[in-house]
Automatic annotation (TrEMBL):
InterPro entries: PurM-like_C_dom, PurM-like_C_sf, PurM-like_N, PurM-like_N_sf, SPS/SelD
Entry GO CC: cytoplasm
Enzyme class name: transferase
Protein name per Swiss-Prot or TrEMBL: selenide, water dikinase
Residues of the PurM-like N-terminal domain: 2-105
UniProt keyword Electron transport present: no
Length: 337
């Protein structure tokens, strides 16, 4: 499971707790702090929990940093983490800082709750629909942005993408990773979700397989659609599938929730995700959710069909995003209707 759920001695309550940390992957220290916090909270949100009682921050300062860099970078990272925690309705009350060869940032999130506040990730049934709440391709976007300064790497992808498109995709990935999955967690209750997980380091297929393996019923997940940040599929192909993006194993950081919903609720879930995201500070075209597959009777495994439909998700603020109002249309694949 994404969190540990520990029944407490005090009647009917459980302690739900999670921890996560990683190395910086974007250039902006403040945004890195926000991403790290969103990533920690995401494990709670994957269980339908919308409130967090407390957070601790884990921080490792690189011994290679001089005093000037340290005094500039680390407070920004801490502020980003705290601001995201505040957005999630919680606060950071402590933690641990160490010196290490590398910068590491992460934390712990804890909440005491009643059984009706969380959704165990094991109730999928045949006929359910799979929904994903953030586009894929963050790893590709971050790497492509680094390659702008590496001519040898850039030469491999410059025929399929412009520098401007890479910069837009990088911004989209950064804001997507820093977006809390809290809205989706609340809607899981409203639309009777049967199971969910968040998509992070193992990629979409890795986490779909983990979730399928936990199900009480004999089910399999079949993925038909892949919503991907625009141009990232082309970059991945130009690199000889270095990232395995379309194969579903490209690592994501602070990705969306993969949710199993009753068929009759999935379109409403997507529609409400889009409307709530649009009103939440400029989520733009990427805010929302996509129907990506189905749950059928099977051997508790997940698979992506041979030729999945790629849904190109335009970065917010781009010309394509301003023209695109249909990115969360529920009717996205004849196979699913």
């Amino acid at each position: 499971m994404d969190c540990c759920v520990i029944p407490l001695r005090h009647g009917g309550l459980s302690l739900v707790q999670t921890t996560d940390f990683f190395y910086p992957l974007v250039e902006d220290p403040y945004m890195m702090g926000r991403i790290a916090c969103a990533n920690v909270l995401s494990d709670l949100y994957a269980m339908g929990i919308t409130e967090c009682d407390n957070m601790l921050m884990l921080l490792s300062v690189s011994q290679k940093m001089n005093d000037k860099d340290r005094e500039k970078v680390m407070p920004l990272m801490i502020r980003g983490f705290r601001d995201a925690a505040e957005e999630g309705g919680t606060s950071v009350t402590g933690g641990q800082t160490v010196i290490n060869p590398w910068i590491i940032v992460g934390g712990v999130a804890s909440v005491v709750c009643q059984p009706n506040e969380f959704i165990m990730p094991d109730g999928a049934v045949p006929g359910d629909v799979l929904v994903l709440t953030k586009p894929l391709g963050t790893q590709v976007a971050v790497n492509a942005h680094q390659w702008l300064e590496q001519p040898e790497r850039w030469n491999k992808i410059k025929l399929v993408v412009t520098k401007e498109e890479v910069k837009e995709a990088y911004q989209e990935a950064m804001f997507s990773m820093a977006t809390l999955n809290r809205t989706a967690a609340g809607l899981m209750h409203k639309f009777q979700a049967h199971a969910a997980t968040d998509v992070t380091g193992f990629g979409l297929l890795g986490h779909a397989n983990n979730l399928a393996a936990q199900q009480r019923n004999e089910v399999a997940f079949v993925i038909h659609n892949l919503p991907i940040i625009a141009k990232m599929t082309a970059i991945s192909k130009a690199c000889g599938n270095l990232f395995n993006l379309v194969q579903g194993t490209s690592a994501e950081t602070s990705g969306g929730l993969l949710v199993c919903l009753p068929r009759e609720q999935a379109a409403k879930f997507c529609s409400e995700m889009k409307s709530q995201s649009s009103g939440a500070g400029g989520q733009g075209a990427s805010g929302g959710a996509w129907i990506i597959g189905i749950v059928e009777k099977g051997d508790r495994r997940a698979r992506i069909i041979d030729k999945p439909r790629i849904i190109e998700v335009p970065p917010r603020g781009s010309q394509a995003a301003n023209q695109d109002n249909s990115s969360t249309s529920p009717d996205q694949n004849p196979n699913l209707s």
